[in-house]
């Protein structure tokens, strides 16, 4: 499942890349270029990797996050955000369904999946006569915090809540669960036998995140986590010590009920903060990491005492997120005109101004340009204001007395929602606004705080945003979430594309399956114009010197922490 994320917010929930340098002498960002297919992605990893034996036992790490809640169910649309995923990973590894680890699976830096033995010691698949049987050996010690065993009942409930039959359950996407026929016990309750109506690939499309058996009604699923974390329904190496809604902080300590590797740290503190506040907080030693993804932030953070710069590629795709259900955007001609008016390079130039970052292609919501399966699917080649006006003119629009393109007396008028207070992010939205205005559209800016991100995006309270999603190593899950007419949030698609999406999940060969997924994306974009990738971008993190096993991690983590049990301070740097 792909997670919503802002274009440049403060959340440490987005993964990025490389070079570390001391914090004493201002030097400016080093020149860097995005990797393309065949590139060396090892350049995109910088975590100050250390063995736990070389770390101080104990200590505290304090991190900033753009929003805490308001809904903590990451499987629901309202809770589906990168911030939520980052916040919950240390305390609920069982349920996190995005990033490098969750439930039955964990990913390596390059996106290759293997069983997460804390929960699933072994996963085997057999296909016979067009049907698939998956056998899962669950760790005997795996238990929810309230003492409920993680066994066949957990897997059965996960399937029932996510398979999509009950439309009142506000899931993001049924994904591969729609193809599961049964979940039953094998030799005992810790052996789970899953049968499918058709083969499902990749296997990690199932049970990358588990749901406690008590979360078993639409009411609990949809609203039970509003302002309530329910730590009793979690399982992970840390536990919630305190959630202070007034101070907007969450404090985590080692979980005495955790059966896996014990954490090095004795405390993790998350603080909800607007982007501008994180700069002073990092410089004053109040937090241990801050992003420098825009020139203004970089220059203000540069030279901070006792800090390193860890820099790389952000696993993000976005730029054009259109809400096709809003009255101003229901006409596909208007959406096509928006895509046509956009100058992607100009927007990237504003967004990456002064960061010495360049990228040649950013045209898929599902895969990064360095993927061997990637192709640029942006649906418009002839772009610009005049080309966009022609799209509208051909659809029956004409300038009104104010010069705004209109049809049947109704002008093309909508808002771009911008989050946070970063000047570069604001300038990026304003650049898009001017491009659309030049094409005869009436476009205003709706300014919101970072803390409103989950509410506005999850509740679909916007017309257009320059937001996007995290990006995975395989497109199979994303193609259903974004482009299946029964699951994508705009309700756009058709029976022919839905059938293609259903079929591709049966393709065992990774290359063939991902190529089929990319072809679906190309067709959907060309026909419906609902989401378009304008940029991917760099990740630049300023990190407190001495913090180990933290930083740009590619697919191994979307929160810059490859393994929360090994996060800690090198000896002599303990906080």
UniProtKB/TrEMBL annotation:
Statement: the UniProt record of this protein carries the keyword Lyase: no
InterPro entries found in the cross-reference section: SBP_5, SBP_5_dom
Domain Solute-binding protein family residue range list: 125-487
PROSITE patterns per UniProt: PROKAR_LIPOPROTEIN
Key words, A-Z: Signal
Keyword Nucleotidyltransferase attached: no
Signal peptide region: 1-20
Pfam families, alphabetized: SBP_bac_5
PANTHER family: MONOACYL PHOSPHATIDYLINOSITOL TETRAMANNOSIDE-BINDING PROTEIN LPQW-RELATED, PERIPLASMIC BINDING COMPONENT OF ABC TRANSPORTER
Protein name: ABC transporter family substrate-binding protein
């Amino acid at each position: 499942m792909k997670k919503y994320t802002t274009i440049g917010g403060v959340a440490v929930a987005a993964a990025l890349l490389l070079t570390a340098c001391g914090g004493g002498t201002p030097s400016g960002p080093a020149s860097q270029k995005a990797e393309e297919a065949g590139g060396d992605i090892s350049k995109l990893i910088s975590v100050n990797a250390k063995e736990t034996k070389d770390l101080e036992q104990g200590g505290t790490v304090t991190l900033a996050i753009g929003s805490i809640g308001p809904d903590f169910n990451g499987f629901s649309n309202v809770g589906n955000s990168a911030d939520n995923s980052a916040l919950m990973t240390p305390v609920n590894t069982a349920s996190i369904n995005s990033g490098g680890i969750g439930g039955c699976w964990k990913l390596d830096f390059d996106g290759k999946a293997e069983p997460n033995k804390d929960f699933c010691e072994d996963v085997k698949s057999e296909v016979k006569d067009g049907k698939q049987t998956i056998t899962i050996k669950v760790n005997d010690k795996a238990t929810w915090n309230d003492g409920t065993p993680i066994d066949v009942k957990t897997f059965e409930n996960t399937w029932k809540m996510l398979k999509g039959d009950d439309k009142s359950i506000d899931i993001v996407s049924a994904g591969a669960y729609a193809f599961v026929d049964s979940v039953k016990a094998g030799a005992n309750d810790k052996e789970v036998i899953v049968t499918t109506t058709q083969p499902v690939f990749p296997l990690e499309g199932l049970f990358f995140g588990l749901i406690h058996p008590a979360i078993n009604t639409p009411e609990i699923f949809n609203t039970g986590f509003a302002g309530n974390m329910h730590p009793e329904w979690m399982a992970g190496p840390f536990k919630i010590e305190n959630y202070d809604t007034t101070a907007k902080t969450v404090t985590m300590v080692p979980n005495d009920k955790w059966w896996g590797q014990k954490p090095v740290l004795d405390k993790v503190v998350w603080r909800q903060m607007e982007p501008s506040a994180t700069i002073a907080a990092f410089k004053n030693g109040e937090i241990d990491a801050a992003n420098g993804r825009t020139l203004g932030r970089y220059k203000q953070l540069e030279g901070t005492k006792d800090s390193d710069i860890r820099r790389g590629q952000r696993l993000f795709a976005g730029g054009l997120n259109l809400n096709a259900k809003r009255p101003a955007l229901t006409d596909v001609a208007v959406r096509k005109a928006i895509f046509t008016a956009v100058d992607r390079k100009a927007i990237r130039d504003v967004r990456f101004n002064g960061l010495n970052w360049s990228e040649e292609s950013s045209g898929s919501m599902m895969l990064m340009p360095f993927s061997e399966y990637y192709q640029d699917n942006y649906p418009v080649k002839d772009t610009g204001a005049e080309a966009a006006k022609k799209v509208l003119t051909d659809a029956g629009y004409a300038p009104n007395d104010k010069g705004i393109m209109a049809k049947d007396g109704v002008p093309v008028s909508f808002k771009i929602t911008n989050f946070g207070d970063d000047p570069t992010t604001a300038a990026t939205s304003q650049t898009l606004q001017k491009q659309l205005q030049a094409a005869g559209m009436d476009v205003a800016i709706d300014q919101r705080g970072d803390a409103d991100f989950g509410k506005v995006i999850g509740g679909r309270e916007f017309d257009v945003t320059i937001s996007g999603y995290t990006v995975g190593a395989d497109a199979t899950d994303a193609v259903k979430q974004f482009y299946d007419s029964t699951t994508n949030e705009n309700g756009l698609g058709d029976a022919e594309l839905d059938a293609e999406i259903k079929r591709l999940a049966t393709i065992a060969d990774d290359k063939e399956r991902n190529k089929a997924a990319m072809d679906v994306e190309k067709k959907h974009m060309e026909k419906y114009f609902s989401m378009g990738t304008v940029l991917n971008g760099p990740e630049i993190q300023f990190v407190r010197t001495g913090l180990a096993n933290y930083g740009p991690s590619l697919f191994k983590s979307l929160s810059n922490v490859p393994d929360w049990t090994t996060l800690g301070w090198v000896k002599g740097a303990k906080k």
